[in-house]
């Protein structure tokens, strides 16, 4: 079992059983919250699918029968950064041109074996034209071609796409599994840091690892205070901005957005109906910001104040954000 997706044994066994079956479904929807290991799972699943019997599992990168559609670099300069192994900005969506280029590949048979895997990561971020182009391929899939669509929010996909896919659900991890993953991914983290990350992540290994790597303990404590107390005087939002820092790295900003989303989701369970609606509204805005953060150059100070304001708008004692 791949350590990158610890805790998803049931999903992995379901995938292996499907490969061994006589009539394997041609399209799969890998569904679950962001940070549960769907990306690593999809790549391992694709490698297992195209593996030639009697041979070892092949490498995914560069394999002619594994096609991965994901966010492309935003421009030529960002493409150069990617080629040099540096962090780079991406386009906002998976484009229709990417899907059409993939479909053109499907007129030929798989190169090395009898099966081909198409990974779309994430399918949530396809342009409307890309979704329509993909739908045609899902309706009439070429023999030996299998689709793996990663989705953090299945509701964003067209019902016609979802109805053609078999759903493979990814479960939240338990504390022990999270602790194992943190120790593997961030061996420098001590027991106290791991415990704080586990408590803040609510089952998401991605959030837990980001919590440790970006030292989000102080930010998390302030988020919880805002949710408990509100922030009518903007004092806690000021402290939140100080904790974030004047020029945080983009990854730290994205990790903070994901942490805020996780914190809000956990609030839903015990909230009143009226407060639930506020939480859902704030979560939707955070989701949009999280999607944009990888490509937009947000002002860090304004972004953290926006996050704080959204949390304050859902605070227990009153709607404190004005």
TrEMBL record:
Q: Which GO terms describe its cellular component?
A: DNA polymerase III complex
GO BP field: DNA-templated DNA replication
What InterPro entries would the database entry show? DNA_Rep/Repair_Clamp_Loader (IPR050238), P-loop_NTPase (IPR027417)
Xref: Pfam families:
DNA_pol3_delta2 (PF13177)
The residues forming a coiled coil are none
Q: Which PANTHER family match?
A: DNA POLYMERASE III SUBUNIT DELTA, REPLICATION FACTOR C / DNA POLYMERASE III GAMMA-TAU SUBUNIT
Official protein name in the record: DNA polymerase III subunit delta
Write down the species: Novosphingobium barchaimii LL02
């Amino acid at each position: 079992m791949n350590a990158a997706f610890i805790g998803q044994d049931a999903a992995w066994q379901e995938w292996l059983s499907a490969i061994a079956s006589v009539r394997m479904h041609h399209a799969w929807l890998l569904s679950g919250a962001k940070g549960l290991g769907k990306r690593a799972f999809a790549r391992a699943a694709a490698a297992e699918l195209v593996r030639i019997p009697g041979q070892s599992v092949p490498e995914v990168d560069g394999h002619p029968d594994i096609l991965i559609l994901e966010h492309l670099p935003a421009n030529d300069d960002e493409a150069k950064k990617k080629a040099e192994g540096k962090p780079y900005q991406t386009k906002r969506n998976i484009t229709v041109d990417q899907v059409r280029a993939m479909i053109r590949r499907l007129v030929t048979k798989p190169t090395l074996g009898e099966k081909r895997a198409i990974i779309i990561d994430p399918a949530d971020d396809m342009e409307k034209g890309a979704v329509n182009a993909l739908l045609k391929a899902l309706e009439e899939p070429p023999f030996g071609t299998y689709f793996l669509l990663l989705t953090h929010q299945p509701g964003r996909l067209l019902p016609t796409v979802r109805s053609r896919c078999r759903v493979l659900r990814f479960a939240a991890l338990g504390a022990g599994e999270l602790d194992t993953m943190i120790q593997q991914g961030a061996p420098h983290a001590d027991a106290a840091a791991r415990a704080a990350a586990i408590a803040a992540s609510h089952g998401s290994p991605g959030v837990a690892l980001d919590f440790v790597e970006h030292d989000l303990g102080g930010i998390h404590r302030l988020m919880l205070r805002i949710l408990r107390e509100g922030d009518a005087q903007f004092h806690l939002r000021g402290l939140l901005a100080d904790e974030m820092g004047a020029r945080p790295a983009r990854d730290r900003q994205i990790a903070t957005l994901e942490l805020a989303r996780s914190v809000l989701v956990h609030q839903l369970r015990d909230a009143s109906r009226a407060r639930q609606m506020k939480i859902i509204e704030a979560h939707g805005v955070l989701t949009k910001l999280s999607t944009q953060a990888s490509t937009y150059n947000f002002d860090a100070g304004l972004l953290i104040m926006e996050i704080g304001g959204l949390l304050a708008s859902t605070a227990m004692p009153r709607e404190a954000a004005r």
